[in-house]
Design brief:
By secondary structure, the chain is of the alpha/beta class. It is built from ten helices and 25 strands. α7 runs parallel beside α8.
Length: about 575
């Protein structure tokens, strides 16, 4: 992958921060000395944003889906002890979506004074991102001295702050409208009731996502992070990693992102006769992990951990992959196994490496696929091409060429995609100071081109900051003399010690990404129902390409509802056939 530049072409880039559904030209009304309003669109509301309009929450979700909304507050004077009190949602025949099943967070704000590279719309402000849970994960290891708590919260004067409510619709929930209310109350006696309506649509998301994801292992990064800090005498590393592994895996699973098993999950062991074998106890543990956390893809170790030259040591390489094939058959799960062969080959030597290793592996006809983070077209003809060496291509958003990709797909090869920094022509870049919608858009475009996977290089990159809760510039190249700041790059999670437990805390960006993955499942469901043409029309109207998209979050929410109605209508038509 080479870094390319080009002409900027964006559709409808607008700043819509701070507006609530139905605000339009209405004047916000102050209620009981403060402003309280709600928001269901995928957007951030900054600290300086003026009050919005509208309390009524109107959501729609199918079974197996999370759906969220924001509660936002602002007051001309400070308000002590603010709390959000959730209520049950009552639906058909008195069926309840219990309040205790909802997840509630306070939005923690980061002061960003320097915009991410190439963000021409940036304005200095306090940006909400990290999410402080009102209720800690049930099996989390608690720690003393939390710096931040969700509630009660003292609302400062002339500042906008918010909460996020996440509601899950379990399998088996009867379809229909559910209604209830949430209450925002303060220690001085003021309070506001928020009417909430959730329509449960009569279909289910698959338990396992249709989109493959590879975002790295948060716990592997945590081990390195706390190891470095302990060595520097700053804070001790956790003594027991098992509950942290479980907490991270559960969090990723709830966001439809593949969790990674703890170290040593599957390791082929050499046998006296020169073969390899993965122990049955490892296979059983892996099955349980896959079933518990709904994993659909797994990256095996690089084959260079076993052989130095795939051709000179072909018998050993063949024996090693045979052990994987035998284990995959025993595991008997719909899991894509692959090896991450090379990241961004950008010169002739790296191209030769992929050609040498990839073609040798593919000649074994293993069930394990070869993934290379590279576009489907050749960077430099003098280097030769990578055809015959790659099963899974993973181009950068901005380096995707539909015609080239379609040729590889016609041969049975798979296309994934990824983003990193701000390379190439502008696409929906993933940084804290870009619009939150950027995390939802890519899955729609990916489905349109039948890209089956989404990759990101890290969720926990805190190496360059002392405190991720106060320092937003997770990748800062100024000190290296290599370039500018990238706010939030490689970091979708936050160290949870700051909020009272061991593990990681989510972000608004992670929630938006989860919503996009759920949207992908809507599109994949329509594809299976034979309604791809209608779904594609909806997608193309929003985003003709990776370089053009509608920046109005309301348009995307309306399109999602259209997808849901199309699914429901298709199911109804099928049920009515004799």
């Amino acid at each position: 992958m080479g870094s390319k530049t080009g002409t900027v072409l964006l559709l409808g880039w607008v700043t819509v921060l701070g507006e609530a559904i139905g605000a339009d030209s209405q004047t916000p009304q102050e209620q009981k000395g403060w402003y309280v309003w709600t928001l269901t669109r995928t957007e951030r509301v900054l600290r300086s944003s003026p009050p919005g309009q509208g309390l009524q929450v109107d959501l729609g979700a199918c079974r197996g889906e999370w759906e969220s909304f924001q509660i936002l507050l602002r007051s001309p004077s400070s308000v002590p002890g603010v709390r959000v009190e959730p209520g049950d949602l009552i639906g058909p025949s008195g069926h309840r979506l219990p309040a205790q099943n909802a997840q509630l967070f306070r939005q923690h704000q980061l002061h960003i004074t320097i915009g991410t590279y190439r963000n021409m719309q940036f304005k200095p402000d306090w940006y909400p991102d990290a999410l402080i849970p009102a209720r800690l994960p049930p099996d989390a290891v608690r720690v003393e001295g939390a710096r931040y708590t969700a509630m009660p919260f003292d609302l400062p004067a002339e500042q906008t702050h918010g909460f996020l409510v996440d509601i899950y619709v379990p399998s088996g929930t009867p379809a229909g409208p559910y209604q209830g209310s949430y209450r925002v109350a303060a220690a001085d006696g003021r309070s506001t009731e928020i009417p909430v309506r959730l329509t449960v649509w009569d279909f289910d998301l698959p338990r396992v996502s249709s989109l493959y994801t590879a975002f790295g292992s948060p716990t592997a990064s945590l081990r390195g992070y706390y190891g470095r800090r302990e060595k520097a005498g700053k804070e001790p590393a956790p003594k027991d990693w098992a509950p942290i592994d479980a907490q991270c895996a559960q969090l990723l699973s709830e966001h439809r992102i593949n969790a990674t098993p703890p170290p040593g999950a599957l390791i082929p062991q050499a046998q006296p006769d020169g073969s390899f074998r993965i122990p049955d106890q490892q296979i059983k543990a892996f099955q349980e992990f896959v079933d518990r956390y709904h994993v659909n893809a797994y990256c095996i170790p690089h084959p260079s951990t076993v052989v130095k030259d795939p051709l000179a040591e072909e018998p050993k390489l063949r024996a090693w992959f045979k052990a994987w094939d035998e284990a995959i058959q025993k595991i008997d799960r719909a899991v894509l196994f692959y090896t991450y062969l090379q990241d961004e080959p950008n010169d002739e030597e790296e191209y030769r490496y992929v050609q040498h290793w990839g073609r040798a592996i593919r000649q074994l006809h293993s069930k394990v696929k070869v993934l290379v983070v590279e576009q489907t077209w050749t960077q430099n003809e003098a280097w030769g091409d990578l055809y015959g060496a790659v099963d899974i291509w993973c181009p950068l958003f901005s380096l995707f060429k539909p015609e080239s990709a379609a040729k590889r797909q016609a041969l049975g090869e798979m296309i994934w995609t990824y983003t990193a920094l701000c390379q190439g022509k502008p696409t929906p870049w993933w940084h804290t100071d870009y619009p939150l919608l950027h995390y939802r858009i890519p899955t729609w475009i990916a489905w349109r081109y039948r890209m089956r996977g989404l990759l990101y290089w890290s969720m926990v990159f805190w190496n360059q900051v002392e405190d991720p809760w106060t320092q937003p510039w997770t990748l800062d190249r100024r000190a290296e003399g290599k370039g500018p700041v990238f706010n939030g790059e490689g970091s979708l999670l936050y160290p949870a010690r700051a909020v009272g437990f061991e593990g990681v805390a989510p972000s608004l960006r992670l929630k938006a990404l989860r919503d996009g993955i759920e949207d992908y499942d809507y599109l994949a469901l329509l594809e299976r129902l034979g309604r791809s043409a209608e779904a594609e029309k909806i997608v193309v109207e929003l985003a003709p390409s990776w370089f053009e998209w509608n920046a109005d979050p309301t348009a995307w929410e309306n399109a999602r509802r259209k997808l849901a109605q199309l699914i429901l209508q298709t199911q109804k038509n099928a049920a009515s056939r004799p």
